[in-house]
Automatic annotation (TrEMBL):
It comes from Rosenbergiella australiborealis. Keywords: Cytoplasm, Hydrolase, Nucleotide metabolism. It is found in: Cytoplasm. Pfam families: Maf. NCBIfam families: maf. InterPro entries: ITPase-like_fam, Maf-like. Its EC number is 3.6.1.-. Its main location: cytoplasm. The record marks 13, 71, 155 as: Important for substrate specificity. The active site is at residue 70. Its cofactor is a divalent metal cation. This is 7-methyl-GTP pyrophosphatase. Nucleoside triphosphate pyrophosphatase that hydrolyzes 7-methyl-GTP (m(7)GTP). May have a dual role in cell division arrest and in preventing the incorporation of modified nucleotides into cellular nucleic acids. The keyword Chloroplast does not apply.
Length: 195
């Protein structure tokens, strides 16, 4: 089956994850407001934003398979989003020290040829070891994870902050759950093993 695969993201990390499937795709950054709504549960928010990202590209790519993703972390029912500043990143890592942070990743896939939606919510737990202030500041200065939910990059030096990780798909932590995505793609008729 012929297909166009579009990733609704400018994230080089998500692009690298999707590249593992060996399928041709291109990335487009959707222009949406990623703000949460008042009292919106985390699961609802990441699924809503993932779908909004994909929806933003439908008019331009109406017949494509469009992949939207969104991710937030939670610690003691508090949302850990992107910190944007070193001070906020330090505060997030200080509060995560010695704790378990759960990452919620919403996946929304639009199949333009069938005008059909597929969605999945995936979680992944990260258990932080006890961190010193010197380790936190050292990490922040070396990796600058200011645009990463939870203030770390697990695919880089951020892995040194952890005691262990737990979940079904480690790609979920990077923001694109490949096991769920390949299941959806097979339903649509795109199989990375036979294309």
């Amino acid at each position: 089956m012929p297909y166009n695969l579009v990733l609704a993201s400018s994230s080089p990390f998500r692009q690298a994850v999707l590249d593992k499937l060996g399928l041709p795709f291109f990335s487009v950054s959707p222009d949406i407001d990623e703000s949460g709504e008042p009292n919106e549960p985390i699961a609802t928010q990441v699924l809503r934003l993932a779908k909004m990202k994909a929806t933003a590209l439908i008019e331009t790519y109406p017949d494509a398979i469009i992949i939207g993703c969104d991710q937030l972390g939670s610690l003691n029912n508090q949302v850990l989003g992107k910190p944007y500043t070193e001070e906020q990143a330090y505060a997030q890592l200080r509060s995560s020290s010695g704790q378990c942070v759960t990452f919620h990743t919403g996946l929304a896939v639009y199949d333009g040829s069938q005008n059909r939606w597929y969605q999945s919510l995936e979680t992944y737990d990260v258990f932080f070891r006890s961190l010193t202030d010197a380790e936190i500041w050292g990490y922040l200065h070396k990796e600058q994870p200011l645009h990463c939910a939870g203030s770390f990059k697990s695919e880089g030096l951020g892995v040194t902050l952890f005691e262990k990780m737990a979940g079904d798909d480690p790609n979920t932590l990077i923001g694109l759950p490949l096991i769920a995505l390949t299941r959806i793609l097979r339903e649509i008729g795109v199989n990375p093993l036979t294309q």
